[in-house]
Amino acid sequence: MRRASVEQELAALADLGLAAAEFDLRCYFSHQQRLRQDLAGVSMAWLRGGNTFMLRYALYRSGADTVFRELLAANALVYAGYSAGACVLSPSLRGLELVDDADAVTRTYGSQPLWDGLALLHEAFVPHYRSPGHPETAAIERVVTRYRAEGIAYRTLHDGQALLVNGPETKIV
Asked: Shortest CA distance to 124 belongs to which of 102, 150, 103, 105?
């Protein structure tokens, strides 16, 4: 099922004229330097959705969290993605356990989930907000309610919207 989904996304990116290849972060666990070398010359990283906590753990174990920060700071990479791929950019992942299973990290890897995001955004990223037909919309509403109650800064996006960050400029398209 995962393989079919990856193939579908690679084909969709190819249809847009992008030459895409999969980098499975699990293959880079404890191999940050190899990841850095393999990403040399790559102009865009597209991070897929899924479980935010599993993705954040994979970013950490592979060193991609550090490598992406370095490449973005050097203006050498465009970071793109959706759902979990954008949520990990938040300062914290607290609240997202209402949508994704944080304990999946423990069950799969025997490690505690990471609760800190990459903090590349200044506010929590909340996808699928009031997006009819999306299976996580009701859970996302609970996340927003919690963020409001706790005074946590957040940004919601409906399916079909994108957050474009270019230096100091941020806009929804």
From this structure: 150
The domains of the chain, with CATH numbers, are 2-172 (3.40.50.880)
Classify the phi-psi angles of 123: left when phi > 0, otherwise alpha if psi is within -120 to 50, otherwise beta: beta
pTM of the model: 0.94
pLDDT in tens, 23-69: 999 999 999 999 999 999 899 999 988 999 999 999 999 999 999 99
Q: Under 8 Å CB-to-CB from 134, ≥6 apart: which residues?
A: 128, 159
Distances (CA, A) of 43 to 4, 16, 75, 78, 146: 24, 15, 10, 6, 36
Read off the pLDDT of residues 112-128 as tens digits, 9 standing for 90 and up.
Answer: 999 999 999 999 999 99
